[in-house]
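Researcher: Next entry in the queue.
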Amino acid sequence: KGLSHRWQIMTFLAEFSYMGIELCATRLLSPVFGTTLDVLTTIVGILLASSALGNWLGGRIKTNVARWPTRCAFVCAAWLACVPMFVSACTSTGVASFLNLVITCSVILVIPGICFGAWVPLACERHAYVRGLDTREAASTLYAAMTAGGLVGTIACGFFLVPWLGADKLALMMAIGMFIVGICALLASRDMTSAFRHEIGILGAIVMALIVFSGTVYVSDTASVGYSDGVDEWLDTQYGRVHVGDSVVNGKTLRSLNVSGGFESAMFMDEPYGLVFNYTKMADAVISDYAGAG
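Model: Structure for this entry, 294 residues:
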């Protein structure tokens, strides 16, 4: 009786993670694509489209329904653990075209979106079965929990977790959260047949291995992504994703400051007073415009 609300709690946590990964995506993509309206629209559009597909697929499942919430949560957790790796691979060329944006967003968001979408009808069916509710009451209570989870996730991630943890670590946190949701769904299903135990054991081991790999390679403080040596520091703030990094240009070491996809400043380490950007190239045009206006 005390666990009668377990599906509402799990749905709350799943929606919390859903909103968390949406906010993570905006930060992870910003160094290459910026934070333009095109980026935000693409992220939201792909998540909504994949969630709609997941809703439809979840409603089509007719057999072994009790097993599918665990599968969805575990697959989602495995994918979220790989998000930093996917972003690094897709943006390694530095090409900020709209096509590359759509491809990158699709790679990191479609599978989680489908899993989250499929979770809703599956959890609704299990919630109605456990509580003995009719469809309307089961859907209303579950959707209330889902909306509350989205609200809390948006506030917590947007105002606190992204600035405190950074987008990489938050993505890993969301993966761990979905892994816990999957374990809870497994316990709630009470399906411990030999075949299902074997399947979930393999899937769970894969998820844990990916979480450990991501934690040690992509989100550790000593991780170096993009450069083999020199400075490579990332910082998430309330205003943007800041990167200070070294690269080699024409045989010279260049240290640059990038904020959400835009270069704010740069300097050659062996020529600290040399100009990297031609700041004066528009000076004549500006002076002419002012002279004409006067």
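Model: The chain is about 65% helix and 10% strand.
Researcher: Noted, moving on.
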